[in-house]
Amino acid sequence: MKKLFCAVMLLLMGIVGSVSLAKENKVLYVGTNAEFQPFEYLEDGKIVGFDVELMEEIAKLMGKEIEWKNIAFDGLLPALQAKKLDVIIAGMTATEERKKFVNFSETYYTSNQMILINKENPVVESFDKLAGHNVGVILGYTGDIAVSAIDGVKVQRYNGAAEAIMALKAKKVDAVVLDSEPAKNYAKQNKELGLINTDVSKEEYAIAVGKDNKALADNIDKALKTLNENGTYDKLIQKYFGDK
Ligand code: GLN
Q: Which residues form a coiled coil (predicted)?
């Protein structure tokens, strides 16, 4: 009797184990930082945006379910390297430096850096005039890297874009350097803010996966190709950037 009980228990454990393993294999842990409107942002506590919909479509084509993880931008690459995430989609620029640590998919969006200023304190008029000023950036963003390279600039690093914008509104910084689409959004939502275009960099956004997971990057690329061909990508572009 005892033996039979043990056998049944072992069998059950095996079944439960393989079911949870199957479930585990179906789930993609996707990291983002939902402070980057319109790519990823919170609406009623839910992560929404262009990247979110694009990644959901990719996962659907791959037969996977997504479990979203919303963490600080600066923590995304370490979490991917520690295998706490399978994928990052976060308006992330595929820089040469980052390519040393992760595999990037094909690029899915091109942007550039812009400068936000407070119209009541218009002391900065172009990127090469940032030296000597207090400039807000977000920790680890490509904007941080570009501004930090300027001689004589006083860089103030913030954990998120919302915090940097608050500092600009309070005139604690003279300018904030940020990717074009979120910058345009902040300018639209805050009439006291002005926007200056720059040609400092061309930012190619791509989806990141682990260095040892080339197969996943290839599958994402295949899905991206399908979404391009079947019009889904264009529909999303229209939905999020149609009025620009
Ligand atoms: N494109 C910028 C970068 O990769 C900012 C990305 C983001 O804030 N989500 O650093």
A: none
Stronger pLDDT, 200 or 189, i.e. the higher one:
189
Any idea which residue has 């954990």 for tokens? 159
- Taking the C-alpha atoms of residue 179 and residue 203, their distance in angstroms, rounded to an integer, is 8
Distance 38 CA to ligand 1 centre (A): 12
CB neighbours of 52 closer than 8 A, spacing ≥ 6? Answer: 32, 40, 68, 89
Centroid of ligand 1 to alpha carbon of 39 (angstroms): 10
pTM of the prediction? Answer: 0.86
Extents of the domains making up the chain: 27-111+203-241, 113-197
Residue written as tokens 């059950």?
12
The three-class DSSP label of residue 103 is strand
Tell me the longest C-alpha to C-alpha distance in the chain: 85
Q: Which helix (H) or strand (E) holds 156?
A: strand 154-158
> What's the start-to-end Cα distance of the chain, in Å?
73
CB of residue 113 inside a 6 A radius of ligand 1: no
Question: pLDDT at position 17, please?
Answer: 52
- The residue whose CB lies within 8 Å of the most ligand 1 atoms, and thus the one to mutate among 41, 142, 184, is 142
Report whether residue 93 contacts ligand 1, using a CB cutoff of 6 Å. yes
- Give the CB-side neighbour count of residue 171, counting CA atoms within 13 A: 6
Q: In the predicted model, what is the mean pLDDT of residues 130-154? A: 95
What is the phi-psi region of residue 231: left when phi exceeds 0, alpha when psi lies from -120 to 50, beta otherwise?
A: left
